[in-house]
Each structure stands twice: as structure tokens, then as C-alpha cells.
């Protein structure tokens, strides 16, 4: 079940919304899929992807659009990081694995879920929320219930 977890070396964030099991390319627990969809729906428009191209976070079904969007997010992050000469790269595998205690699984290889949280947090703040957690509580109350989300618990 999707949950809030403490994570080390995660940019400016010490706690993230994390999946329990990997999402994609052929699997995904419904609660984890809803979390990934909410993160993608928040982060991808900042990369020029219209919100209409994102699947609804109210469904826990792993659909082909969500699978495409996971890869699209990974590719876009790598493009931006290359342009800014950042050595960090996401694996472009269409999979969102659980972050296991740290921001990166290897030197310069962050977990996609950690980067999704970071991107969604920046986007939420840009549009006036204090955090992505506040945005989830307002826009996706079903997900907030699943996560047992208290915005004070997530950066």
C-alpha cells in the first residue's frame, strides 16, 4: 500500500510518498498506481505534457497511458539534467520502484519515485500550495485517506 516514508539525501525533502511495490511495466498494486498517477498528473505538465494526457488518479488500474507517461517523465528528467549538466539520470525503464531509504539507488541514479515527489512538490508550490501533500489532500482526498496523509508529515 502506498505510504509516507522517511528518505535520506533526498534534495530538500526528508519524507516522501512512496510505493510499496514497483509500478510498471506489467504490474502495480492499485494504491501504488493511484499515487504514481497523481504524481505524474502534477509533474508532467511542467514538461509540456497536457493534463488531458494523464490518467485519472481516482483509478488504480495500470493503463497504457500511465506506462507511457512513466517513461516520458524519465526521459524528460534526463533531458533537463543533461541540459543543466547534472550527472543524475533516471533509468528509462517505465518502472517506478520503491525508494529504499535513500534518494539514489546508485551514485547519480535517483529513484524515479523520489524525483516524482520532488517534481510534484515544486509544481504544487508554484501553484500556491504549501506542498504536494496539501495538494493531494485537496484534489485527491481518496489518496490522502490511503496514505493516512497529514500534510505536516510530508515536505
Can you offer a commentary on this structure?
- The protein has one domain (3-153).
- The protein contains 5 helices and 4 strands; from the N terminus they run ββααββααα.
- The protein has helices at residues 30-43, 64-83, 112-126, 132-139, 141-147; strands at 3-6, 15-18, 104-106, 109-110.
- α1 (30-43) crosses α3.
- The model has no long low-confidence stretch (mean pLDDT 89).
Compact description:
The protein has 155 residues and is mainly alpha-helical.
Q: Please bin the fraction of helical residues.
A: 40-55%
Q: What gyration radius follows from the Cα positions, in whole Å?
A: 14 Å
Number of helices: 5
- Distance between the terminal alpha carbons, to the nearest Å? 20 Å
Order of helices and strands: EEHHEEHHH
Structural class: mainly alpha
Number of domains: 1
What kind of sheet is the major sheet?
Answer: 2 strands, antiparallel
Give the percentage of residues in beta strands: 5-15%
In which order are the strands of the major sheet placed?
A: 1-2
Which secondary structure elements does this structure contain, and how are they paired or packed?
Elements: E1 3-6, E2 15-18, H1 30-43, H2 64-83, E3 104-106, E4 109-110, H3 112-126, H4 132-139, H5 141-147
Helix pairs in contact: 1-2, 1-3, 3-4, 4-5
Descriptive tags:
5 helices; single chain; 155 residues; 4 strands; mainly alpha
